[in-house]
Design a protein that fits this description.
The structure is a single chain. The protein folds into 2 domains: about 1-125 and about 190-220, no CATH class; about 130-175, no CATH class. It has 8 helices and no strands. The protein has helices at about 1-5, 10-30, 35-70, 75-85, 95-125, 130-150, 155-175, 190-220. The chain is elongated.
Length: about 220
Amino acid sequence: MFPSVLPLRAIAFQILFLLVAIAVEASVFHRLLKTDPKQSILYASSINLFCTVLGWIVFFLIFNAEEVSSGSTSQFEIDMMNFIFFDRWSRQTATSLILICFVTFFASFGAKELGLISLQWLLKAGIKQEEKKEEKKEEKKEEKKETEEESTEDLTEQKPSLRTPVIRVLRRSSRLGQPQVGEKTPSQLRAVLFANAWSYSAILAILLLRFAVQASYSSIEP
């Protein structure tokens, strides 16, 4: 009675798919965006959790809206609920499932891109104050060093204008995980697209392997 109420299998597979997607997309971000491993895992876990929560909310809203408008539950809705929560599906819903997978792929790509942009904006806004404090400390240290150096007044006036801007650019780029001056990397949009494609491919491979194992067991049973 308990398994029919709480879809433990669907919850377990959702956790498995999340872990696989985070691992795959973090490696893609690390290679394409040139971020460090910790920042890549942060990006991948944040956007995948955001996409998963948003996807389930949209799923239940759509099914609730259809049920309210029609006044009853359609056979398609019943088949989809049985497939997602109880792993029961028929051949009639195979075409609809393929179409839904394509729509889900592009929708998740857009949601992940939006989530990554929002996350980067929040991170940059959060470290602005820390950057200002560090810059003030560094400027004070540089001023002390420059006063101690034996040089003419003209040279001491030129040094801050030549050294300080370059040092600030290098420090900011290293803190934010961005490429340094002169370094080229692929666009963020392409990186998110590749990460989404690779994670979907890995999840599809797991599902195909699972169906193959189920088919082999069903053929062995009398």
